[in-house]
Amino acid sequence: MDAAEFRRRGKEMVDFVADYQENIEHRRVYPDVEPGYLRSMIPSEAPLEPESYEDVLRDVDRVIMPGVTHWLSPHFYAYYANSTSFPSILADLLSSGIGTIGFTWAANPACSELETVMLDWLGKMLQLPEDFLSETQGQGGGVIQGTASEATLMALLSARLKTVKCVQESDPQRSEADIISKLIAYTSEEAHSSVEKASIIGGVVIRMVPTDEHFSVRAETLEKMVAEDKATGYIPFFFCATLGTTPCCAFDKIDELGPICNAENIWMHIDAAYAGCAFICPEFRPLLNGVEFADSFSINPNKFLLVGFDCSAMWVKKSADLTRAFQMDPEYLKHEHQGSGWCNHLHQPYSTHKIHWGIPMARRFRSLKLWFVFRMYGLRGLQAFIRKHVELAKTFENLVRGDNNFEICAEVVMGLVCFRLKGSDELNKALLKQITRTGKIYLVPCKLRGRFVLRFVVCGRTTELRHIQEAWKHITELSSELLQNLFD
Ligand code: PLP
């Protein structure tokens, strides 16, 4: 494909994507295919000779589209959203088109610098304490990780190294292996599975902290567990708080947990993957009070800020905690500006060398997505988007509350409504099975206090009141049939 053909095909592809999104609500949101459907539809080996673009595109319609779950559909109410937008898609196109890889400042100055400034912009939108911003005289700053899981892992690994060094300072004879075998991390029993995974990768023990009646971790509970573990020789070193848990969007009480973590030298990371985006609205910002006690904090703009996957924003109070843990300096990464200004702040060694802030060396130009979206929506536009989703979720909650057959299972704070039919888990599983089978809307379940619960998340950029009303009508029709069969 030469530039002339790319020009033509590119325009066609933009039309294809625009048509897809404009008409997406007429598609079945959940595909009607069986596992393994694809293998028999394409050859078992890559072609030896080049094929035509027309052939490839034809197979997009024949092979790919039938197996796509349409995350951008207004009928998609599962997981937490992938909230992309047209400006974000264009920024991604530009990023792919430039094809530049920004691991050090020299590898791509614009990529390194824009990322640092965008994380400051976003940090200010969230009213983060200055400690987390890199433009101030502090030692903090932000980085874009691929996912919230990576942000949690980086925080845990940094905390692990910091604690090992700290213990060895007072007890130089103690081996690293011995210290690591005694480290203990904590997170909510409601936390995302990625926190437990981080502990497995980090080779440390993790304890799940029980939650109160609002599914929140409270100070007293954590304090008691820390005391017990210290008494048996463990070294508490890491606590991952969640703001907006995956099952029901509950909030740990970070303002009371933070002081305990600080007093016990426990690194507090806050995983606010979904809900953190809403803190750009002043009415939700109080949920972030206590962030000043945290060592690191992350949100996923790709969940609720109109930025496409992947984009997880992570801030640390002391960037040196990350860079010290992960700094490698091979000769091929050195460059002439290494020791100056942006590339080596006095307190922030290699602050724009994001390679030292994460696992991969190569990094995409993801900050372009933030820049395009922030400028084309403005803070006001993003706030309006979040408020609309919360409003629609409240409407759905009211519909559920108005029907005696159903119950609400957790407080509705943002765009997630947890609900179930009054009755057995089997009844609710049967309802979800019917919903999935018909494919008109798509939801996933969760477990709350051992009970099977349905999650309804307002996800789509184009979801309107009528979609919510249609979804509820569909759910009540299916549930009426189920209840009818039960009594027949
Ligand atoms: N943390 C929370 C609270 C989440 O809700 C999720 C996913 O929904 C994750 C972490 C995982 O996010 P990622 O896929 O970016 O790793």
Automatic annotation (TrEMBL):
Classification of source organism: Eukaryota, Metazoa, Chordata, Craniata, Vertebrata
The keyword Plastid is assigned to this record: no
Protein name, per record: Aromatic-L-amino-acid decarboxylase
Molecular-function GO terms, alphabetical: aromatic-L-amino-acid decarboxylase activity; pyridoxal phosphate binding
Family named by the database record: Belongs to the group II decarboxylase family.
Modified residues (N6-(pyridoxal phosphate)lysine): 303
Keywords, ordered alphabetically: Catecholamine biosynthesis, Decarboxylase, Lyase, Pyridoxal phosphate
Entry EC no(s): 4.1.1.28
Gene: DDC
